[in-house]
Amino acid sequence: MEKIKINGGNRLTGKVKISAAKNSVLPIIAAALLSPYECILEDIPLLDDVDVICNVMHSLGAAIDIERNSGSISIKSDNINILEPPYELVRRMRASFLVMGPMLSRFGRIKISLPGGCNIGTRPIDLHLKGFAALGAEVTMGHGYVEAKCNKLKGAKIYLDFPSVGATENIMMAAVLADGETTIENAAEEPEIVDLANFLNSMGASIIGAGTDTVKICGVKELNGTKHQVIPDRIEAGTYMVAAALTHGDVIIENIILEHIRPMIAKLNEAGITIIEEPTRIRVIGKNRPKAVDIKTMPYPGFPTDMQAQFMALMSIAEGTSIITETVFENRFMHVTELKRMSADIKIDGRSAVIEGKNKLTGAKVKATDLRAGAALILAGLVAEGTTEIFDVHHIDRGYVDVVGKFKLLGADIERITE
Ligand SMILES: CC(=O)N[C@H]1[C@@H](OP(=O)(O)OP(=O)(O)OC[C@H]2O[C@@H](n3ccc(=O)[nH]c3=O)[C@H](O)[C@@H]2O)O[C@H](CO)[C@@H](O)[C@@H]1O
Ligand SMILES: C=C(OP(=O)(O)O)C(=O)O
């Protein structure tokens, strides 16, 4: 069993380099199924989720070569001979479902287990499936599996009831090899959608409008190989920004795209934190106790749900009362119980949490219930009085590259212990 142990109270200073985005690299690796030619990604984040998607790809017959020192990966999908990825792999990560669009588009068939719910909500896939059906696929479900078949997908107009990130990505990937034009309306606008579209366009796809609510895809006959650099992880950046603010630190966060972290900059400014912006890095200086601010999670460019738990850790020691409202997922407050173990004063009222800022948090034994809940507990542990031990750290390993090493370099008293 592994745990992360933190002795709180150290002020963080120095520089941290942000890794490439988990939520970009996963769909982009899946998209490499669309071409028989080699796709190379440079400087990828070596995360557990990346290993899972690579194993899914491998199970289908793709040749994957990861150069672990440089973080470069080569994918060649010229020998795809299995059309059903194994349940044991798919169930480990929801993003495995993103192989569905590419497989359907290129091979006309896929059978994959339903991803099911998880700790943050039920997370249905109805919008993905409606999109595939609109493109002409015959979609059936049974015995925990979804199967889709088609001769050749045909472009269509698809309106998403909610701007789902995964549905936009999956439908976009399905449409690139379809006959004719597809329009996705009320599409998700997240930077990771733009990164995926850029990757696909560099392979020869014809996608316009990614990053707006209307994405147009003109189907092409085949795609080439390509070389691509994945965008920096805006959620990892936001997590280190909060760490600097919480610990009254002075931290330079390198390898960021300012536009992508605007919602976090705005909320930290409102909380009285000083932020100095440069083109590819920012400096976060937490001179004073943060002021309470209200937050409502929204699809991009709104405040990201993936930063909600970390901001709740910050608001737990802020001056005043804040209200955090989660509108994207129906059950994303699992971290509240654990933060309360650390003396946070939080009450849940429907989709909102009311946080009375305390003068201090106290160290405790806590468990990571999901990825960002785990990140919030690390943040709380950095500022809590005494020792915090975080269990179930495998959730954190899904999405943070060398989290202990990076915080240690900034001066945190943090270690990973294997028992
Ligand atoms: C790997 C990845 O990129 N994960 C991100 C992605 O997840 P993911 O792509 O799963 O998130 P979605 O945008 O699809 O989900 C948003 C909301 O839409 C609902 N929904 C979604 C699809 C569907 O067919 N039907 C439906 O009702 C979901 O239950 C949820 O309530 O976007 C989320 C929202 O920014 C982030 O928190 C995740 O980190
Ligand atoms: C919810 C997240 O990821 P996933 O969609 O892979 O569960 C996340 O990155 O916070």
From TrEMBL:
GO terms for molecular function: UDP-N-acetylglucosamine 1-carboxyvinyltransferase activity. Phosphoenolpyruvate binds at K22, N23. It is an enzyme of class 2 (transferase). UDP-N-acetyl-alpha-D-glucosamine binds at R94, R123, P124, I125, D126, L127, D306, V328. It catalyses: phosphoenolpyruvate + UDP-N-acetyl-alpha-D-glucosamine = UDP-N-acetyl-3-O-(1-carboxyvinyl)-alpha-D-glucosamine + phosphate. It is found in: Cytoplasm. Keywords: Cell cycle, Cell division, Cell shape, Cell wall biogenesis/degradation, Cytoplasm, Peptidoglycan synthesis, Pyruvate, Transferase. GO terms for biological process: cell division; cell wall organization; peptidoglycan biosynthetic process; regulation of cell shape; UDP-N-acetylgalactosamine biosynthetic process. Pfam families: EPSP_synthase. SUPFAM superfamilies: EPT/RTPC-like. The active site is at C118 (proton donor). The modification 2-(S-cysteinyl)pyruvic acid O-phosphothioketal is found at C118. Its EC number is 2.5.1.7. One of its GO terms (cellular component) is cytoplasm. Pathway: Cell wall biogenesis; peptidoglycan biosynthesis. Residues 7-405 form the Enolpyruvate transferase domain. InterPro entries: Enolpyruvate_Tfrase_dom, Enolpyruvate_Tfrase_sf, MurA_subfamily, RNA3'P_cycl/enolpyr_Trfase_a/b, UDP_GlcNAc_COvinyl_MurA. Cell wall formation. Adds enolpyruvyl to UDP-N-acetylglucosamine. Belongs to the EPSP synthase family. MurA subfamily. This is UDP-N-acetylglucosamine 1-carboxyvinyltransferase. The lineage of its organism: Bacteria, Bacillati, Bacillota, Clostridia, Eubacteriales. The gene is murA.
